[in-house]
PORR domain-containing protein (Linum tenue), 380 residues
Amino acid sequence: MIPMMIKSIRRRPLAAYITLRSKTTAAQYVESRARDAVFEKFMDKYKNLLKVIAIQDLILSNPTRTPPSVSLDFLNRLSQKLHLNRGAASFLRRYPHIFYIYYETTVSQPFVRLTDAATQICREEAEAITATLPAVVDRLVRLLCMSKSKSLPLRAIFKVWKDLGLPDDFEDSVISHNPHIFSLHDAHEPHTHILKLVDEFPLCHLRPAVDDWRVTATECSKEKCEANDTAEMQYCFKHQYPPGMRLSKNFRAKVKEWQSLPYIGPYEELMKPSKVGMRRLEKRAVAIAHEFLTLTVEKTIEVEKISHFRKWFEIELNMRDLFLDHPGIFYLSTKGKRHTVFLREAYERGRLINPNPVYNVRRKLLDLVVMGRHQFPCNN
């Protein structure tokens, strides 16, 4: 596996990092490895956006009030869970363009609702998701196809529904409306169902997103008459490292060796591994994580969420270790008391290179977060 801290190469033999880890990486190691200033700067804003979205979802999930709202006391009780260190009221007042606090005389306590601007963004996001439902169905099919049984627990999908750009009512608008594709079954555990592709659904050959990059990279190699590079491109992943990260000659050789290693793709059936197949299984895990991230709206996800799929994707490795050991493909941030992984190749200067309609709407909400108290008051 690829090491994360290049400075350690001088003190330890690189081969020590190529083997699989025996235990979870320590928090100190996560904090001390090479950082990418661009991603860290973006996470300073993004971590607060995640808190805003969590509160926004709580407000919108209360249909008993018009407009939807929740009591400030309710949010205060959830402050620790929402990582609101100074309490709900202090956090909400930082974003007057998004939240409006008012006093409800009938119950004699303050409530919180969304501003008109934030409500409009919510409508636009719902409209963007509805307009891209065929793509939503395709993402869900691909997610199921990465499982050997072509099935996943519904509780795991609920963990990532927003990351995948699924509508709020995806059980009805996506699953129930496509009975020729999806079916729900009772699980062998309480409080969940199993979502499965129907047996009659034709499974065409699914092409991983990395293959599109390989085609482009291969064509560039042909134009430059780099025959060796063209031949080696069959199993490669795009690598790009943080600025200032020095790569030794020995390290580059190990990366090149790993790049040429054959592996089983994310949509291919996994056979029983041989004694010499562990490195290929590790590369397959990278391929699955890479494909998973390409299916998300923002090409990023919390490590805890993707870890819920390890068993179903037959990944025996610790996901955080996997991301740390491949810094040229993934970037792991620890900002905001959570571990968030980004697909490096999808980003440039803190923005998606190829944005989608849902992402574009969510950037509007991020702009309001960044705005904070500036240019206020506004009409609510």
